[in-house]
Amino acid sequence: MFKALLLEEADGKQSASVKNLTTADLPEGEVLVKVQYSSLNYKDGLAVTGLGKIIRSFPMVPGIDLVGTVEESSDSRYQPGMAVVLTGWGVGEQYWGGFSQYARLKADWLVPLPEGMTAVRSMEVGTAGLTAMLCVLALEEGGVKPESGPVVVSGAAGGVGSIAVLLLARLGYQVAAITGRPETADYLKKLGATEIVTRESMAEPSRPLEKQRWAGAVDTVGDTILARIIAETNYGGTVTACGLAASFKLPATVMPFILRNVRLQGVDSVSCPYERRCQAWQRLQALLPEDMAADVTNLIGLEQVPDYAQRIVQGQVRGRVVVDLQR
Ligand SMILES: NC(=O)c1ccc[n+]([C@@H]2O[C@H](COP(=O)([O-])OP(=O)(O)OC[C@H]3O[C@@H](n4cnc5c(N)ncnc54)[C@H](OP(=O)(O)O)[C@@H]3O)[C@@H](O)[C@H]2O)c1
Fold first, then answer.
1. For strand 83-87 and strand 151-153, is the pairing parallel, antiparallel, or unpaired?
2. Ligand 1 pocket residue status of 222, Cβ below 6 Å
3. What angle, 0 to 180 degrees and rounded to 10, lies between the N-to-C axes of helices 305-313 and 42-49?
4. pLDDT of 231 above 90
5. Closest residue (by CA) to atom 29 of ligand 1?
6. Of 42, 64, 76, 277, which sits most exposed with the smallest number of CB within 10 A?
7. How confident is the model at residue 6 (pLDDT cuts 50, 70, 90)?
8. Residue among 41, 124, 226 to mutate when testing ligand 1 (max atoms within 8 A of CB)
9. What was the pLDDT predicted at 56?
10. Radius of gyration of the chain (CA)
């Protein structure tokens, strides 16, 4: 018997509760993993609370991230005892996920835990950190250098935002952090932000072109904030868009693209190819400071997931939430 958070639906109402399961209850897959940690992302918040149409078939074990050790494997790439990480691929949405002490998974979804990285660190990173790293890689590929000028990060006190601020600061960029929570200013400065920008000042609808302020951007929120960032981006700058914490809308014009050569680069971590994932994980391992956890991480047990799911969708979580499955 092992514990898992199970989402069920009855009379059109969704419920979430910790249940006892056996490995016979798990879906098919090539690799059985004993899960050590998972993490709670914004998408998990939407799934567990039912506020977003993330889950389409029930019962479902949510949790889009996990790290653990291989127990059984019919795939030659993975042997019992190997440490593996999973993020994305629809796990925790269409396939049973990481809020469970055991998971049975497709071998193609896994990556080996990067050498030198601890299991708990990989979930401090999780989908949020992987996405932040993919945004930073896209900025580098767009030619944005530390000397190009400030890079702005929206939703800065959230999971993706916090790690983006930290990574950019470690790489020597000046980082402007947009936040709706002024009380997180000290936290963001500790992560390396050089400027705090209020959410209100950025949420004002913008003109097609505004005064140029940013060499690059990591946007996690969408809507008028993303539109304003694009309108304020320097000639030749790159804006990466990975999130919709405000909304999926983008009330922008083409003017920054055709008059300022601005590049808008979408970033997806869910179906990111294996080679790119490994590249991003290696960079994360090289860049993130040893002592990141003390600032960024909230460590919780499985029973606390529904409560934290409410908090994350209400924008009340600072940094990352790691779920300890062996507690
Ligand atoms: N493309 C991908 O593969 C991918 C991967 C991971 C996440 N995402 C997306 O990225 C976004 C962030 O994910 P996360 O896990 O970092 O979530 P999170 O921890 O909840 O952070 C989101 C942050 O956005 C800000 N925010 C919340 N509501 C807002 C609003 N109405 N208007 C403006 N800002 C608002 C808040 O930051 P402040 O308090 O600092 O203002 C909040 O902390 C989500 O939309 C998620 O779905 C996409």
1. unpaired
2. no
3. 110
4. yes
5. 246
6. 76
7. very high
8. 41
9. 86
10. 20
Chain centre distance of CA 321: 11
Among the four given CATH numbers 3.40.50.720, 3.40.50.2300, 2.60.120.760, 3.90.180.10, the one describing domain 2-113+292-324: 3.90.180.10
What is the number of the ligand 1 atom nearest to the C-alpha of 184? Answer: 40
Q: Separation of 74 CA from ligand 1 center, angstroms?
A: 37
What's at 306, amino acid-wise? P
Q: Under CATH, what is the fold of the domain 126-266?
A: Rossmann fold (3.40.50)
Residue 20 CA to ligand 1 center (angstroms) comes to: 32
Mean pLDDT score across all residues of the chain: 96
What integer is the mean pLDDT of 32-45? 97
Domain boundaries, the chain: 2-113+292-324, 126-266
Report which ligand 1 atom has the smallest distance to the Cα of 319: 19
* Distance, CA of 256 to CA of 270 (rounded, Å): 28
Residues 127-155: tens digit of each pLDDT: 999 999 999 999 999 999 999 999 999 99
Q: pLDDT tens-digit profile of 107-133?
A: 999 999 999 999 999 999 999 999 999
Average pLDDT over residues 23-46: 97
Residue with tokens 């396939």: 95
